[in-house]
Amino acid sequence: MQRLEKLDKIADGVGIDLEDVSLIESAVEEIDIDQRFRNKLMSRLIEYFWESSKGDDDIDFDILNKTGTMSLNEENIFMYCDTLMNIGNKLESIEIIKSFGIEHIKKEDLLTLVTKAIEDDVFEQNKILVDIAFTLYKNGVFCDKTLEFIARAYNGRTKDMFDCLKVCVEQNVETYDFEERILIQMLFSNQTSKLDEAFGIYADRKRVTDTIIRAYFTVKSDAFFMNDEETKDAVFEYLEDGLNDVDDIKEFPNIYMLALSKYYSRKEKLNFKQTRLCEMIVKNLCDEDMVFSYFKALAKFVYIDRDILESTFVEYKGEKESIILKSKIFPISDDFFEEEFPNVYKNIFVKYKKIFADEIWEYQVVQNAEGNIKVLANDCVQFNKDEDAKESRFILINDIEDLPEGKDEEMKEKLTEFIYKDELVDNLFALI
User: Fold this and answer.
1) pLDDT tens per residue, range 158-189
2) CATH fold for the domain made of 310-390
């Protein structure tokens, strides 16, 4: 009876000593007691070991392990795991946390346990700890140490990593190579929605590497040229500086030249440096047979070949290479005929030819996949003189054809201009 009374006092929260430890140990093994009463006693025993672990007191490991095996619950799990941490059994503590389930442990207690564990360099890449630390962060529970730990070791969804990076920056904690890992992940997974912001953080906080810089500007150039993605002027300023620094323009990546030329085509004016670069780019791209319809808009800045200015373009961006162009010019022909459709750049197919103002170029873009014919596009285009196109005999003829009835005076002026230019050319050749 005296033994049970003593156990009642222990269970009710009266402090215990080493003698009480032996009493509890023998009681739970020898006496058939209620499970709830047993759990109370075991929790008191775990609490005793926990308090002892904070100092230099000796702890009976066998009893501690037996206690943990017999009775762990949401009330004592933290004390038990923290005791293991305090006495150096961190790995065992981590494994118990994992098996018990972090959802059953108070978040603030988990934060304490994780913070203690990561103080040991042995666990700097421990996946269980990384996942726990990140789960706590997602629930708004973190400290500078766990944020640094996540920055150093966590790899997961790009959005999650980037959101965490911003918190790290706000808290001004060490991020190691977190920015670089996020950027690489964005660049090679084509997740560009937050790319500029991530690159800005990286450039502000770290010593940038040439590889990352080139990859970033390549992705930005490609996104602008291929998808018309909104791009800051700073990107093109970097490309301009890069082109100024190369000795041979052929060493400059084509995607940079394509992006810059398309960017110039949308500007109202160019400065001297840009005009010179534009001229170099257009010449090089034309030499490489990389001609696009937007080249016409560059005529207000630099020389553009007459064949380009006088031509009508069909452009098609496909997903595969095996496509065919079928054309007919109304009213000249009634039937479609197949013609060459050059793949100018990354499955952007371009065909251009001269047609008169009263003609219509009807076309079909067809895919032939193992004998299965699929029409991908069915459309028509007409000649449209660009505002900045220089006058030529072909353009004058088109202007005449395009005049409505009753415009006799204008017709006369156009014919006079045409005859004058035609005779001028003949005289020049006669002189030669």
Assistant:
1) 999 999 999 999 999 999 999 999 999 999 88
2) Immunoglobulin-like (2.60.40)
